[in-house]
Design goal:
By secondary structure, this protein is α/β, with parallel strands linked by helices. It is 16% helix and 28% strand. The strands form eight sheets. It has a seven-stranded mixed β-sheet with strand order 5-4-1-8-13-10-14, sandwiched between helices. It has a seven-stranded parallel β-sheet with strand order 17-20-23-26-29-32-34, with no helix packed on it. A seven-stranded parallel β-sheet has the order 18-21-24-27-30-33-35. The longest helix is centred in the middle third of the chain and has 11 residues, at 218-228. The model has no long low-confidence stretch (mean pLDDT 92).
Length: 425
Amino acid sequence: MLRKKTCVAMLLAGGQGSRLGILTKEVAKPAVPYGGKYRIIDFPLSNCTNSGIDTVGVLTQYRPLRLNAHIGIGIPWDLDRNVGGVTVLPPYERSGSSQWYTGTANAIYQNLEYMEMYNPEYVLILSGDHIYKMDYEIMLDYHKANNADVTIAAMPVPIEEASRFGVVITDDNNRITDFEEKPAHPRSNLASMGIYIFTWKVLKEALIAMKDQKGCDFGKHIIPYCHEKKQRLFAYEFNGYWKDVGTLGSYWEANMELIDIVPVFNLYEELWKIYTTSDCQPPQYVASNAVIERSIIGTGCDLYGNVKNSVLGCDVTVEEGAVIEDSIIMRGAVIKKGAHIHKSIVAERTVIGENVELGIGEFAPSQLDPKVYAFDLVTVAENSVIPDNVKVGKNTAISGITVASDYEGGMLPSGGYIIKAGEER
């Protein structure tokens, strides 16, 4: 047995993030870029580092290659430890069976052996796809002070939005008296954030007891089970910034909030740094005729055009006469001469041709997937190419190396899409 740890964190990072559409075609949601420099998983990992938690299991499944490469051995987060540190935990073949993770709790159950190596007093369960800063040590102290079996981080939300979450009902001492998973008529506006602290023996017993539940999940199975067993469940109320960037709209909005004059979410705090893997990039180059207004610009960018109210990742090229407004342009993208990009999300290593116009006209419902593409955004998947001189309307999706003949009359109208043969949606 390895050295005992007081608290082990289990970070769920296997989700596809299907509501991000073609942005997660080749990459797991926690590895999606954010803020021109980071990836979404950097936030819970940095929270662990800043909270003094030095043993983190990262559970991966969907498209894990880039996520695994990003995490590496955990050096940026000071998690390269001989005992503890960060460990990537994909599904693996067992004697006589091979099983994917089928739910949040099922993924944790399949890694009981990992947790048992450290025999922790407490286990912290985290999601890898939220943007926020939280001191888990304070939450753990709260858990101990209440002699709790389970503590659920919860935050107030507008009551009309509460039905989208697991909702906790508490007494005057914040003890949870009831828990409702996505109720049609919520009795509380305290929404579960998907952040839990369990006393280890309670978690282990609940996971084993519920192991045969199909798609075993914390909100649907484990928390109700603990409640039925009269365990001591408490709500830890959180009132800071927390963003579930689960839709294209919320993802775009979260990036745009970073460039407010007084940002709602501050990436520049000395006392709570967000760490990430940093490549050796050259500095930015800004030409004399370039114009930059209220934007985040990553390292290694070459800027000859105009950039306004936008977030640019590393190594982006903006050629002369190009205009980018209210957009997210990810690492390695090339925006060619005279292109006009408005309210768009352009993924990594994409080429936007000369004199292309993105985001014109009026909103129209998506012909691809109205549940995913429900915003007036142009979304372009990574490694895509848009040829010269075409126009693209709002609420559109483009994936693959497209050519002029793909655009009837040189136009992709609002609500339309181009997904090249062999490309996934």
